[in-house]
Amino acid sequence: MKKLSGDWKFLLVFSSIVLALIVITGVLAPNREDRDPTPTTWNSGAAGAKAAYILLGQLGYNEDRWERPEAELSTLDAAHSTLILAEPYPSFAAFTDKNRQQPFIDFLHHGGRILATGAIAAIFLPDAKVTQPDRLLTDLCITTPEGPGPLARAGELEMAAPVRWNSDDPAVRVSQTCNNGAVVVSYPEGSGEVVWWASATPLTNQGLHNDADLRLLLASVGAPD
Hints:
Number of helices: 7
Structural class: alpha+beta
Strand order of the largest sheet: 1-2-10-9-8-5
């Protein structure tokens, strides 16, 4: 097993302390019934992403909950922005719009980074192809890291993996697999980069308790600048 570098160790320890403080102060407590399965930054249940949102803010990221039309992505400083599409629920108009990818492609071509999770998010990504796995997994998959890249160096993940990346494009780097199917990949698009996960598990309140999932999130979103 590869040893973590000093920078990784410091960042992981610091992040773990902040995350523990968030949990202790009750980020997860208010949602007692915990029935919300959506990984939104408002959801404090196990499947929510509220802890990740607060944690990234504590680490110096300038965050914004994007609630504007996709066309307004052009107003962002794309080269210093990461757009996270965590299991989005597009409107019917988005599904039927042949140009639905264009705002995201323009964002990427201006140097932006997109972290997308799940099958639905893939409809906004250029050249994205996902498929169902050969067999249905009812539990979390323990992934296998592939290659030397930062997404692989995160280590073995605990991830729900309902879909697989289905492309043999040589530009696509496969960083994590589950039963030989690609579940974490990345590829360049214009001056930007796409990172895709099979599900949002690693950034959820429950998933962040796993150190490797936390490392994957930090490697996927990029530096705080």
